[in-house]
Amino acid sequence: MDKQQDVMAILKLYELRRDEKMRAARAWYFSDFAPRSAMDIIKLYRDGEQASAYFRTVTSYWDMASSFVLNGALDEKMFFDSGTEHIFVYAKIAPFLAEIRKLFNEPEYLIHLETLALKVPNIETKIENRKRLYALWTKKEEEISASEGS
Question: What range does the domain containing 58 cover?
């Protein structure tokens, strides 16, 4: 694929992120979704139609986009240079993926997202930075005010 086609494909992926339903799902994932265990994620599938849909929308989107890169349909460097949202998505679920895969009996669940994220230079540091960021984003306003007063 030539660079112009890569650019157009990445722009299309960006455009899809702007879809109204995708925006709602991303807003939920970044601000409200705060799993503390694999069971918190499993619970989404059992209990919450909207939360389950949001989770599946975001994670399947980034797993799909990652598969494009891993299969050579998109230039890896250009993809990495164009954004880091996939790292944030991965960071929230990384600690729980092995257990989820075991519980689902699906060893390749979100494997493209994980494989691509782990190729990012300094991924451990980036994951820790994302964890700190989403800890702030998912805190309730009163928790932030209380911690600032300490």
Answer: 3-138
